[in-house]
From TrEMBL:
GO cellular component: plasma membrane
Topological relation to the membrane, as annotated: Multi-pass membrane protein
Location(s), subcellular: Membrane
Family: Belongs to the purine-cytosine permease (2.A.39) family.
Protein name: Uncharacterized protein
Membrane keyword on record: yes
Keyword Zinc annotated: no
TM ranges: 61-85, 91-112, 133-159, 171-190, 202-224, 244-262, 283-305, 325-346, 358-382, 388-409, 429-453, 465-485
GO MF, one example: cytosine transmembrane transporter activity
Keyword field: Membrane, Transmembrane, Transmembrane helix
């Protein structure tokens, strides 16, 4: 048996290495090199111990969170905020939504992954079952590829506009070429692993904030605060003229953006070394600085220049020289963010045993194929930003609600980590054939209810949306429904809940105790 022990007396993991290899897809008895073990920990599914975690300081984690939070889609979403009808309400509502959505996201995804050093998908098995976790895995994969495609399209279109001014003729060919180059650069970055990505983020994060600050300074110098803050949008181009509904739209965009972090907070938090670095850096980096600050700058600029294209208002704001320089730096800094997205997708899809056997570089290449295909339709991709934002958040509203309910209210913050890796009928998270159908049902009902309250495509809303938005009532409803159903059904011993647990053991399971 090969053991991996923590130097921290409060955290110890002992692994029967042959058996855990079989559980995660390597096959028992495999002769594994030390570098392959490192890959299995940071880029695979083995729990990460404190001494193996790459975010050892508040600065390292904060810069990564800022880089992720200040992604190009934040500038895109921020540039859409004036469309809610009022730029002031857009900024206030969006910032409030970011904070409201971030707290449950951290509780549902970040805390369990930090505590046990496991990936988001593995943590979700205590809720969905060891096979049912396929549902959130698909959500993570689709979300990662969707945002990666948007970043790729934005970089390609941006470079083309700088060179030709439009995307026709030779510009169209350049757009495709640049998009494919971005895909290759992303592959080269991610194949180096999480440690290298974190080193790049140490530079990219502060650079993005500096560029946003420069943009804000130029806006204030050119227009003044009063003009920016009181600017009114033309009625023809807004979603609504009702102030309360404008606030609801902005609030929903903010909550949806924060809930979109659900797939990634677990992957990030499992690499954080100290508990004191969990909440503050992520709240500052992802929500306040990377999210709210950058999107507010984008909203003010979009309103001032009457365009939702961040590349257009940056160029108009800074002029042909400075504006071009800012655009170039922002575009290429976002390749690091694209790399983070693909990294998390690569870790999550290793839940599928055939993919767990594939070399890391090959797996990344497979994941990037859909992104490369989208290189031929970048204009269409950039028209889907608002829809992607809300749909991505929608799919994680119900998942977040039942995750919090299951982990805190039903399990009392206890997970038998070794059983997360066991696909055996005797496992504690086997439920019904490996799937918690109650969780699947609640997610389906929650998604249907969300679309009934707010349709992201048609922008049609129910009456309740004007006062609460869509995410808040759906999240509360899913939490209550899931709690009642599981309290009723778990009495039969299903799911191995503490209040009705029929303790079972699985012969030969990897022993993991944190």
């Amino acid at each position: 048996m090969r053991s991996r022990k923590s130097s921290n007396s409060t955290c110890c993991v002992v692994v029967d290495f042959d058996r855990v290899c079989g559980l995660v897809g390597w096959g028992a008895g495999t002769d594994v090199k030390s570098e392959d073990l490192d890959h299995a920990v940071l880029d695979g599914r083995l729990p990460i111990l404190p001494q193996e975690r790459v975010f050892a300081t508040a600065r390292s984690f904060t810069t990564t969170c800022i880089t992720f939070g200040a992604a190009i889609w934040v500038f895109l979403v921020g540039s859409l905020l004036p469309s809610v009808g009022n730029v002031k309400l857009g900024i206030v509502g969006y910032t409030s939504g970011l904070i409201i959505g971030f707290v449950p996201c951290v509780l549902a995804s970040g805390v369990p992954s930090f505590r046990f050093g496991i990936d988001t998908v593995d943590a979700s098995k205590s809720v969905f079952g060891v096979r049912g976790a396929f549902l959130p895995m698909i959500g993570i994969l689709c979300t990662s590829l969707a945002w990666s495609t948007i970043i790729m399209a934005m970089v390609a279109q941006g470079v083309t506009k700088l060179v030709y001014g439009d995307g026709s003729g030779e510009g169209a060919m350049l757009t495709v070429a640049v998009a494919l180059v971005v895909v290759v650069l992303c592959w080269l970055l991610v194949r180096k692993g999480l440690t290298f990505i974190q080193q790049v983020n140490n530079v990219a994060g502060p650079a993005l904030i500096a560029l946003a600050t420069l943009s804000l300074a130029l806006l204030l110098w050119r227009f003044g605060w009063d003009s920016l803050w009181t600017n009114k949008e033309p009625e023809a181009g807004v979603y609504t003229t009702d102030p309360l509904k404008s606030l609801a739209y902005a609030l929903e965009f903010g909550i949806a953006t924060s809930l979109a972090w659900w797939p990634y907070l677990g992957g990030m938090f499992r690499a954080v070394k100290h508990r004191r670095h969990v909440m503050t850096p992520s709240m500052i980096g992802l929500t306040l600085v990377g999210g709210a600050y950058c999107s507010s700058v984008a909203a003010l600029a979009a309103s001032a220049f009457s365009t939702s294209d961040p590349l257009a208002w940056i160029t108009l704001l800074g002029g042909p020289v400075l504006g071009t320089g800012i655009v170039i730096l922002i575009l290429f800094a976002n390749i690091a963010i694209m790399g983070m997205l693909i990294y998390f997708a690569g870790v999550s899809v290793q839940q599928l045993r055939p993919l767990a056997h594939i070399p890391w570089s090959v797996l990344l290449a497979i994941l990037l194929v859909p992104v490369a295909l989208a290189a031929f339709s970048t204009s269409w991709v950039l028209t889907q930003v608002a829809t992607v934002t809300v749909y991505v958040g929608m799919q994680f509203v119900s998942i977040t609600a039942i995750g919090i309910t299951d982990y805190y209210l039903l399990r009392g913050q206890h997970i038998d980590a070794e059983h997360l890796f066991a696909r055996l009928p005797g496992g504690r998270y086997w439920f019904w054939g490996g799937i918690n159908w109650v969780a699947v049902l609640v997610v389906a009902l929650g998604s249907a209810t969300y679309i009934w309250i707010y349709n992201p495509v048609t922008l049609e809303t129910a009456d309740v949306f004007r006062y609460l938005g869509a995410s808040i009532p759906v999240m509360l409803g899913c939490a209550v429904l899931y709690y009642l159903l599981m309290r009723l059904i778990a009495r039969a011993g299903v799911g191995s809940y503490p209040f009705a647990r029929d303790r079972k053991t699985v012969s030969g399971i990897t022993e993991v105790g944190l």
